[in-house]
């Protein structure tokens, strides 16, 4: 099912191409890899540019028969697949930051963007996009980000083949995708929890301070307020803060 990898030397956005192919009926598991991406998007519409040979920009078409409210589980599965992929290249430990960032030594090495198409309460398809810093040196990052991000090359001292990494990721994603479809919401406590970097950490969202308590079965972040009120954060950006 996975393995139809379409490689572009350069394009604007792998997400846009994958979405158009999904609308045209391309098969599940089709993946788009850009060796150079000029108009990539991260979460919340942020721009993510991929210079030639430096990063992996990949989008995969998925057509799962699951409830639309469980679509976020696919992005979380991709986070785990990414963590497993970088560890297979000699990185000792990769962790996850809610909702879909991958960290090594506390620094971001990858991010996941998932976009779902729902018609009449039916999940038509999900496009899962991966942006992974592969062969970047510190000088490739803006000065204000150098203490916040990392790459496989920085962590291992080795230059890696981007296409090979893409195929390793797709293999691991295929296995995890099967688990999402069979386990459903149980997938989160079974797989994602063990890599969660910020359990019981304090976070700020929209200026409000919370404590991160758990990941809900649907992928939401369960938090508590200072007066003990429990609520769920469904999406968005959080800032990790000291107690």
TrEMBL record:
Top-rank lineage group of the source organism: Bacteria
Keyword Ligase listed: yes
One GO MF term: biotin--[biotin carboxyl-carrier protein] ligase activity
Residue ranges constituting the BPL/LPL catalytic domain according to the UniProt record: 1-181
E.C. numbers: 6.3.4.15
PROSITE patterns found in the cross-reference section: BPL_LPL_CATALYTIC
Keywords of the record: Biotin, Ligase
Reaction(s) this enzyme catalyzes, per UniProt: biotin + L-lysyl-[protein] + ATP = N(6)-biotinyl-L-lysyl-[protein] + AMP + diphosphate + H(+)
GO cellular component: cytoplasm
InterPro entries per the UniProt record, alphabetical: aa-tRNA-synth_II/BPL/LPL (IPR045864), Biotin_CoA_COase_ligase (IPR004408), BPL_C (IPR003142), BPL_LPL_catalytic (IPR004143)
SUPFAM superfamilies: Class II aaRS and biotin synthetases
Cross-referenced PANTHER family: BIOTIN PROTEIN LIGASE, BIOTIN--PROTEIN LIGASE
Full protein name: biotin--[biotin carboxyl-carrier protein] ligase
């Amino acid at each position: 099912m996975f393995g139809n990898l379409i490689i572009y030397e350069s394009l604007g956005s792998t997400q846009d191409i994958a979405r158009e192919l999904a609308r045209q009926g391309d098969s599940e598991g089709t993946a788009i890899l850009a060796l150079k991406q000029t108009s990539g998007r991260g979460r919340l519409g942020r721009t993510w540019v991929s210079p030639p040979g430096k990063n992996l920009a990949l989008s995969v078409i998925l057509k799962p028969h699951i409830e639309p409210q469980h679509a976020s589980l696919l992005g979380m599965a991709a986070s785990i697949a990414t963590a497993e992929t970088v560890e297979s290249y000699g990185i000792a430990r990769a962790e996850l930051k809610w909702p879909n960032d991958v960290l090594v030594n506390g620094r971001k090495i990858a991010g996941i963007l998932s976009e779902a198409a729902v018609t009449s309460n039916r999940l038509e398809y999900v496009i899962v996009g991966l942006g992974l810093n592969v062969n970047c040196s510190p000088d490739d990052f803006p000065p204000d980000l150098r203490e916040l991000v990392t790459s496989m090359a920085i962590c291992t001292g080795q230059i890696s083949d981007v296409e090979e990494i893409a195929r390793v990721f797709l293999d691991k994603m295929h296995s995890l995708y099967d688990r999402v479809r069979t386990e459903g919401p149980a997938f989160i406590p079974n797989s994602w929890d063990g890599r969660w970097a910020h359990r019981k950490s304090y976070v700020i969202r929209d200026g409000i301070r919370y404590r991160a308590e758990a990941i809900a079965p649907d992928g939401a972040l369960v938090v508590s307020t200072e007066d003990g009120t429990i609520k769920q954060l469904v999406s968005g950006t959080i800032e990790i803060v000291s107690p």
